[in-house]
Automatic annotation (TrEMBL):
<dbReference type="InterPro" id="IPR001509">
    <property type="entry name" value="Epimerase_deHydtase"/>
</dbReference>
<dbReference type="Pfam" id="PF01370">
    <property type="entry name" value="Epimerase"/>
</dbReference>
<feature type="domain" description="NAD-dependent epimerase/dehydratase">
    <location>
        <begin position="5"/>
        <end position="238"/>
    </location>
</feature>
<protein>
    <recommendedName>
        <fullName>NAD-dependent epimerase/dehydratase domain-containing protein</fullName>
    </recommendedName>
</protein>
<dbReference type="InterPro" id="IPR036291">
    <property type="entry name" value="NAD(P)-bd_dom_sf"/>
</dbReference>
<dbReference type="InterPro" id="IPR051783">
    <property type="entry name" value="NAD(P)-dependent_oxidoreduct"/>
</dbReference>
<dbReference type="GO" id="GO:0005737">
    <property type="term" value="C:cytoplasm"/>
</dbReference>
<dbReference type="GO" id="GO:0004029">
    <property type="term" value="F:aldehyde dehydrogenase (NAD+) activity"/>
</dbReference>
Length: 342
């Protein structure tokens, strides 16, 4: 029996992973799942899905190690810290202590491999390119996320290699669709855009923060929540089959969308005019206030270029179903649903 520890089990991605596992008891019924949660009401929901709810202080490295050692965990699926290594390193160290074939799966985000992190988006960034991690390591970006990840990501992969723990960094880009989680069912990025549109009656084109990109379209890689969860399960399937996937970066990409087209779909869904102006300083301040961030953080949250190409998950059997046409065709309905929840 494989023992799996999953953090962020009640989150947007984690809950959908648990739902898909419960859909297929024949395949995943032999896995003992320990699911970390925070809210008391989520504990019972985890039990109903066939998993064991766990209260674990993820800020305490020793507590993480102790739990992994006590429960003889085989796989750690970490969904809560997309930038740092404070959960990753203790987990890898504990898995190594147990010995044998152990796996650590980390969750990143598309922003860490985008123009915001100093990646050249005039060409595709491919996850099977061995230079991907070195490009991040050598980033000169002033964005705090990139500054942290350029240190933590190489450290995570190198620690896994040194301690003989299979180590993967999964990179969901812009994820959309309704999750079947018992916690947060909605994509944060889409929610933010809907919140702005509902509050102001408008959406704006955000100026490029990288002058070298000029007037190039702001595009981003996409992945539906169903496909996102099944990407993680493709890695888990390889473990069940004793065909361990190679270490490294895995982009969950199934096409690319334009921020402007996405925004227009939201505006149509809310019955608003599709005309989009370029945001000036006054508009940027207003948007920042709605998002609860600094003006400098607006572009990172709702614009930019991430020209990602994911080959590695597909090479081990991942078959995503939903592409950019699906995103565009469902955005009006999704915007209306989100607006009804705000």
């Amino acid at each position: 029996m494989i023992r799996l520890l999953i953090t962020g089990a009640s989150g947007y991605i984690g809950g959908e992973i648990l739902a898909q596992m419960s859909d297929d008891p024949h395949k995943y019924g032999t896995i003992e799942v320990f699911a970390v949660y925070r809210k008391e009401e989520h504990g019972e929901a985890i039990r109903k899905m066939g998993s064991t709810p766990v209260k674990l202080d993820l800020s305490d490295g020793d507590a993480i190690k102790s739990f992994i050692l006590e429960k003889q965990i085989d796989v750690v699926l970490e969904l809560t810290d997309p930038v740092g290594s404070k959960i990753a390193i203790p987990s890898i160290e504990a898995l190594s202590t147990l010995g044998g074939e152990r796996t650590f799966i980390y969750t990143s985000g598309g922003k860490l491999f985008s123009a915001f992190a100093d990646f050249d988006t005039l060409k595709e960034t491919k996850d099977d390119d061995e230079d991907v991690i070195n490009t991040l390591r050598n980033s000169n970006s002033e964005w705090i996320g990139a500054k942290i990840a350029k240190e933590s990501y190489p450290l995570i992969l190198e620690t896994g290699k040194k301690l003989h723990v299979h180590t993967h960094i999964v990179v969901p880009p812009m994820v959309y669709g309704k999750s079947r989680t018992f916690g947060n069912q909605l994509s944060k990025q889409i929610v933010e855009l809907v919140k702005i549109a509902k509050t102001t009656g408008k959406l704006w084109t955000i100026p490029q923060t990288q002058p070298s990109l000029g007037s190039l379209a702001q595009i981003w890689a996409l992945c539906h929540i169903h496909d996102c969860a099944s990407g993680y399960l493709a890695l888990l399937d390889s473990i069940l089959a004793n065909k361990y996937a190679p270490d490294g970066i895995y982009f969950e990409e199934n096409g690319k969308f334009a921020w402007e087209e996405l925004s227009k779909g939201i505006l149509r869904g809310l019955g608003l005019e599709e005309k989009m102006d370029v945001a000036g300083q006054e508009e940027m301040v207003r948007i920042a206030d709605i998002l609860g961030t600094e003006v400098e953080g607006v572009a990172v949250q709702m614009s930019g270029r991430a020209n990602l190409k994911g080959n590695r998950l597909k090479s081990i059997g991942w078959h995503p179903k939903y592409d950019v046409e699906h995103l565009y065709s469902t955005m009006e309905d999704e915007a209306r649903f989100i607006a009804s929840q705000l």
